[in-house]
Amino acid sequence: MALAAVIIVGCAAPERKEESKVFYPEPPELPRIQFLASFTGSQDIQSKQSAFDVFLTGKEGGSVLQKPYGVAVYDGKIYVCDTMQGVRIFDFEKKTFGGLQGAHGLGNLLQPINISVDKDGNKYITDPARGQVLMFDKNDFFVRAFGTPGVWRPVDAAAFEDRVYVVDVKNAEIRVFDRETGDLLKKFGQKGEPKDILVLPTNIAFDHDGYLYVSDSGRFQVVEFDRDGHERATIGELGSEPTKFARPKGVALDRNGNLYVADAAFDSIQVFNKDHRLLLFFGKGGTGPGDLELPAKVAINYDSVKYFTKYADPGFEIEYIIAVTSQLGDHMVNVYGFGKEKGKKYPTDEELAKQLQEKWEALQKEKDEKTKDEEEKSREIKKTY
């Protein structure tokens, strides 16, 4: 009976430390995003290892992420590309943390860096060490590989309709493949196309209209293309202020066409509307709840909200979740909820963008006036001497 009691206690569900309620923007502004929880290893989702298992194996512990980059959410699971361990999966239905079932044999992964999921549940995993993009079906079994090893370096991929678009960082271009045959159909963005040159492309994502967004750390911008490879617009420029980037990485779009961009240099995510005007930003460097440390990828999901509502404030209604990876620290996958506070009237995205623009212009004016005053004082001092 004593042994049974020990086993029962040892198998109890893990007690997660209560996280502080963190909202963005900060009060007194109306909240739009709440930090919900972070996940780094088996201890965040699995039941504790039983005392009997420890007695049998002689060791206690679990597994944790080591160097995550890519992330995707699908069907109650968070898929994380760990460049040191392969693809790791947090399964919230089964409450397990493990590997990708089909990642062996022809589906063996060497150094997966990014992952995306299409509407049918197919996964596209880029493996620059293998030199290919691997496709797995909705049950995580290997389907086919795209590309020829040795001639390129794929770092991100996204499917739209019958095509798969891949970022080739080695040749600074986008390669387009037939999803069913794996044949290379075209390339764009490469050198020799002055209007469409990419410098250091890193991540891609599609909106619902089929426009492709490519984050380019060499241009310090996100570039919008149509599916034929024609540049339509750019978002951002080099700088340390809102609307600007230093090292843009992961990109994602919600159903309204709002663009989320992770900046690894500033440890934050900026959100732009369809007109490319800044709506808000969230996250900051640090080790506290909701903080980021070298963020890499951002993913949005509407279908798995039910697994995270228990972390939300009772007065905050979640519309969709946002997952962000950090490459360092103890909180390697942060999950946020986008929503609204119950019973409150919120401004439209257009009104919010206008408010932010007005605030930004006021700050710029204040900064310019301060600089002008300092220059005037400096001239007066020089006259004195």
Report on the structure:
With 385 residues, this protein is mostly beta strands. It has a single domain, classed as 6 Propeller (Neuraminidase). The protein is 14% helix and 38% strand. The chain is built from three helices and 25 strands. A hairpin with a 6-residue loop joins strand 24 and strand 25 (333-341).
SSE blueprint and pairings:
Elements: H1 2-10, E1 22-24, E2 33-39, H2 51-57, E3 68-74, E4 77-82, E5 86-91, E6 96-99, E7 114-117, E8 123-127, E9 132-136, E10 142-146, E11 154-160, E12 163-168, E13 173-178, E14 184-188, E15 201-206, E16 212-216, E17 221-225, E18 231-235, E19 248-253, E20 259-263, E21 268-272, E22 278-282, E23 295-301, E24 316-326, E25 333-341, H3 349-384
Antiparallel strand pairs: 1-2, 2-25, 3-4, 4-5, 5-6, 7-8, 8-9, 9-10, 11-12, 12-13, 13-14, 15-16, 16-17, 17-18, 19-20, 20-21, 21-22, 23-24, 24-25
